[in-house]
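TA notes. Do not distribute before section.
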Amino acid sequence: MDRLDNALQQSLEDIVGPAHVHRDAETLAHYGRDWTRAIEPAPVAAVLPGSIGEVQAIVRLAVDTGLAIVPSGGRTGLSAGAVAAQGELVVALDRLDHIGDFSAVDRTVRCGAGVVTARLQAFAEEQGLFYPVDFASSGSSQIGGNIATNAGGIKVIRHGMTRDWVAGLKVVTGTGELLDLNRGLIKNNAGYDLRHLMIGSEGTLGLIVEATISLREPPGDLAVMVLGAPDMPSIMRVLDAFRGELQLHAFEFFSEDALARVIEHQGLQRPFETSCPYYALLEFAGGDDATLERAMALFESGVEGGWVLDGSISQSVAQARALWRLREDISETISRWTPYKNDISTRVSDVPAFLQEVESVVNANYPDFEIIWFGHIGDGNVHLNILKPDALPMAEFQARCGEVSRWVFEIVQRYGGSVSAEHGVGLLKKDYLLYTRSAAEIEIMRQIKRVFDPAGILNPGKIFDL
């Protein structure tokens, strides 16, 4: 549907109130896109429900009128999973931002889909607990969107993905039915666990409206160390050595090109004077003297062995935050070059050879493209960012990067990896889904969607086409 007639607009206003139905161009552009910029948004309207009942009513109206829906959370996605480009109705869940039903015994809390990640983290801290899923967009990403994409982030090596912290879900399906899934149980083997179908489904099976989230005890004192290495195999030696002696909570890497951009544009200081091809950022438990001595001994062993060139370790919370910014500020820094992003993964042991093959293919075919590498290498997830040359038109840049992607994904397929480690498939990766999922798997996915969304109104065209 390419327009919203007066009767349909009135029906939406009757559900949520006139103040929460938006048609102006500026608001539609805001709610109709995520962090990607390759596809222009063109939603017919944006509606902000204030209750689960209102979400159900909107979905039922959409079914009756044939109006497609794009669910919208914090809009921090990187695969165009929340882009409304075909006259869809954006259902933004920002107003479902309640936090309650905290149980100190169960260590769970119930929160609306619109709760911002950082707010949940702060709530957990107020209760003397900890929500470990964390990433650079925690100040704007929302819990519903995190669950819909099974967000990962910087702590996966220790704490896992979002999936591991969802104890229960409330979901409105494509018929307007409300499902209350798992209800916070630890043990529940009574048939299929539909909760896990919804996690990572990118809004194609239902609108996540509420979640019961598990919390845990705080990790205690954490130290941060940045180490420079001469090559990728050395980075993997750092991972192997330190993981064997310390309790790692994060293990990130980035290239010199990435660091140089952050230093120049964010006004940060280098962690040490030596310029290195690659860097590893380690966060580990234990600020006591014994742990720090073990860390320093490992560092010295690396220097003696030639697989560490230089290093720096935090001496305070402020220093730890400053070191983290070297990694976390990369995405924001390079956004001005409109990077073409590939979020790929393979087994941790295969990462050095995998990266070498990918880099060789890109450099050989497009020597004028600058590559920025960074990622969560401790769990096998790396981010390949190709920066757009200023003089190259966007359409031509996207087309040439599409060629690069096919070559890259052929390597991904050969290594048994994934074309989307944590960003989802959305619109940008759906043409490449076959490099990771078989035709049989994709057909089963289609059949599952037809069960939950028989009218095909929920985020159509995302992940795959029906």
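Switch to the second chain here.
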Amino acid sequence: MADPCSLEPMLSAEAALDRIVSAVQPVSGAERATLKQALGRVAAEPVRAPLPIPHYRNAAVDGYAFRSADLDGLRPVRLRVAGASWAGKPFQGRLNRGECIRIFTGAVVPDQADSVVMQEFAAADGDAIVLPADVELRRFVREIGEDLRQGDLLCGEGKRLTAADLGLLASAGVYDMAVKRPVNIAFFSTGDELTGIGQALSAGGIYDSNRYLLGGLLTDPCYRAADLGVIGDNRAQLEAALSRAAPDHDVIITTGGASVGEADFIAEVLGRLGEIHLWKIAMKPGKPLAFGKIGKAFFFGLPGNPVAVAVTFRQMVEPALKRLAGQGSAHPLRIRAICTVPLKKEPGRLEFQRGVLTQNAQGEFFVAAGGDQESHLLGAMARSNCYIVLPADCGGVRANEAVWVEPFGVSL
């Protein structure tokens, strides 16, 4: 598709994303982190189990541990209770023929026992219990290495660590591990009209929402983000800010100044300081997206409208940042939903409309527009919980038609 403001053809969103992701490689360098510091970080090397899990035989239920050889399956049997095994306080004796022990969930099962019966299926009889003839044998004993054997992989390189990962690592006695260093990111807004919150608005001024939006999107343990403030519509100031930021950061993100207006200098300055890999894509909102490099720093010039900032970050910037952080490829989760209202769209560009996703008691998904779809309206964005993804060739959606949606914040 051709941009009416330029003879240069616009890239499709898919081609633009391929070009961006292909250009970036994971950052080098790692650091040690304790498990308490590691949530959300990316493993820099494989971690293997230093011991089997479980590392001793233990009971899966409260009940009695016994020897299956003491039962013949034809009649009830009476077993003397020889002692007890508690979690953290094992039975110290030896289980002999005709004996059992009281046992509790997680407690060590004696070597001589191969079965545990739930306490409700054992009848007390003085210092003994009576088990029915049909009691299940060789049940409710967790064997050594049943979950993981010694040397099994606990966590692979490139795995973003979840709470479950931390629990698994802790269960194997792992205290700390190597994680990828954070991606160093600088971001700032451009525009003479931008005013800091807490300051009085001048005529024609607006509050700078984009830095707060980006700051929220960059709140991630894998990123170390620096807010560099606002740069006015001035070539020299913009060039100086980019030149200062590039040596110390892996990524620079700006908002505004990437369009074709007389005061939009991003592409011009980027071409002078570094290299432009792409500029403008066939996506709505978010057509004026610049991507390139300044020295070793990757550069993303996002549009000025806040909804376009959110969309281009999600679709173009976030996959690149995840790859830089060492996570490999990441794609937003897409599901099918019934659109309950008609949607307007002109063919030509891949479009991400803001929507409200719901689910009924039968598990079916439904979506409706979150409000007006203009890219400067954050109110509709704040009320929404998903993007409605409309292909480039789509000319609108009828009510009760199925569409693809991307719930906010969910990637695969």
